[in-house]
Design brief:
By secondary structure, the chain is α/β, with parallel strands linked by helices. It is 48% helix and 14% strand. It is globular and about 75 Å long.
Length: 355
């Protein structure tokens, strides 16, 4: 499958949206430069959201050494705007989105492109291996929670732990490897979605009759877990907040797993509000919290035992609770802002995105 001469391989444009990534941009560029895909058949398009740190300085050093690295300005500063600018400027027949907060095996691009052609797919992607964003036990626990069904539902690209080469038909993959023609057919990224833009794009691919495949043996080593509870909560709040807007644009739920956290938050909130009129109702909130606490404790215990790190148990428990509460509250807030107040129709939705 990988014996085609270089000239017969499609030209690939690797698009990297960045903003203030001086800590990671050098690592990800080195990861791409080490790829087995022929260097004369690819370009790197870095789209910078006007970084205020040393990101541009690092980029310029690499550009001086490698002519196929380009840098494009993204005055909007957000990922969907960056991707759209990068895709418009790209020269390739295949678009590979790369995130700066990850590292990639040497055959990452080669394998995705080969699977894209072999399957005649509209998007293919690999599996997240979520790495701790720091050295603390909380950061390690957050990484484990973000790779467990209790934390993220049945999102295959987060929970699959396999080296299986068999492609799986799925509803979404991280980042992605697309034939350029997909964007001609269904359009570019939706710039209203500062989060969840990949999910909405992939849903449009499927609605148009396209197919998306996950390749379990292809790994993405993702520095996605947060260093503290505040940043973990902010990230999942944002994921939840934009989910109702995704549903509205698709005119259907993108997935059913998204409703569990807001249902949990409602199970806590509504009885407490009702208790203002009838005090015994507060017991329903207590029961919901107790049920979650018991399930959470059992799941956290099992993970800690598997990892043989018992000290992680309380951190796992609080990480799961934080994820569920933050996502659920964000979802409910998004329902009010988008479904009732139509905030997205009045002005651009600006939120301080976490990294």
């Amino acid at each position: 499958m990988n014996e085609n001469p270089s000239s017969e391989r499609p030209f690939v444009s690797i698009v990297i949206p960045v903003r203030n990534e001086e800590q990671y941009i050098g690592k990800v560029l080195e990861s791409i430069l080490a790829q087995s895909y022929p260097a004369d058949r690819m370009e790197i398009v870095v789209v910078d959201g006007r970084s205020t740190d040393r990101t541009r300085e690092v980029l310029q050093r690499y550009q001086q050494q490698h002519a196929f690295i380009r840098c494009i300005d993204n005055p909007d500063g957000y990922v969907p705007h960056a991707m759209n600018r990068g895709i418009r400027a790209a020269q390739g027949d295949v678009i590979v989105r790369i995130d700066a907060h990850a590292e990639y095996p040497k055959d990452y691009v080669q394998r995705l492109v080969e699977w894209l052609l072999r399957l005649k797919a509209d998007n293919v992607g690999g599996v997240f291996v979520t790495l701790p964003g720091g050295q603390s036990d909380l950061s390690r626990a957050a990484a484990l929670a973000m790779a467990h069904p209790f934390g993220v539902g049945n999102a295959q690209f987060r929970i699959v732990d396999s080296d299986d080469e068999t492609p799986r038909l799925v509803d979404t993959v991280p980042y992605g490897c697309y034939p350029r023609s997909v964007f001609d057919r269904i359009g570019l990224y939706d710039e209203d979605l500062l989060r969840n833009q990949d999910e909405e794009l992939n849903a449009r691919i499927i609605q148009s009759g396209g197919k998306i495949y996950l390749i379990p043996a292809v790994k993405i080593y993702y520095y996605g877990s947060r260093r503290n509870l505040r940043s973990l909560a902010r990230m999942f709040y944002q994921y939840g907040y934009f989910k109702p807007l995704v549903n509205m644009k698709l005119k259907r739920p993108a997935s059913w797993r998204q409703f569990v956290p807001p249902a949990f938050v409602l199970a806590l909130m509504l009885p407490l509000l009702g208790a203002l009129l009838y005090r015994p109702l507060w017991g329903l909130s207590a029961a919901a919290l107790l049920l979650h606490a018991l399930i959470n404790a059992a799941v956290s215990f099992q993970i800690a035992r598997t990892q043989k790190k018992w000290r992680l148990w309380p951190y796992l428990w609080i990480a799961f609770l934080t994820i569920h509460l933050a996502y659920g509250w964000g979802f409910l807030r998004g329902m009010v802002d988008f479904m009732l107040l139509k905030k997205h129709q009045k002005k651009r939705v600006d939120v301080a995105l976490s990294r």
